[in-house]
From TrEMBL:
Residues 179-216 form a coiled coil. This is HTH psq-type domain-containing protein. Keywords: Coiled coil.
Amino acid sequence: MSIRFSERKYGVPRNTIYRHMKGNLSNKSGIQTILSSEVEGKLAKWLIDCAKKGDPRTKEDLKIAATDYDKYENDPPKFGPKGPSIKCLNGFLKRHPSVSVRTPENLGKASATVTQDDINRFFSKFYSYMVENGFEDVLSRPDALFNLDETSFDLNQVPRKVLAKKGRRRKFNYGVVNSREILTKLKEDEEAKQKIQQEKDERKALREEKKLLKNISLKIKKKKKILMVWFLTNQYQKRAVVVQRKTFYTNNNHIHS
């Protein structure tokens, strides 16, 4: 198939076909990136490796690393004093779709290092404790088990979004804080509970009062309607009597005449 025939059949410019046939595609069109493709590949691999190790990196970390590479590769550096812009970071993520912005799950050091032997050891100690203190029968009685819940203040900070491998289901941030550390104020919770209950009672009383006033208003409207019907009926009857009397007098006068 000739180049001219391909141009007519597929609508592709002749120069484009010729350039692809010759393989002259080394220079890409558009604005050139500040960092080379090799360096960007290293940064993408570094982000994925850090996420796998449980120490994911944020966008700020990526900006710092890119700034350091820029200082090492370019003289003078091409990035400004604030480092890469948001547009540069978004372009990096588009060129490397394997890296995406994710929200990690904080995991305490104890939870991160637990093993199957640790779990088996815990249940063995728990069973021994129940037997020694005479609570062995509780383990076979479902009615003796209770599920308790509490309202508390979580001291574990909300994790920031990190850069990790795209498609990875769970991202952990190991050993940052104690993920089970909380703050509970029973007295304050009880006071808050009483206050909430008091507000609920006040709202309920207000609803009942509005409902009562509405019923009274409906009854008043109903009575007004009944009185109006009675009044109209009474007026109609009076008019009927007057008409009847007029008719009677008219007939009598006609007879006498």
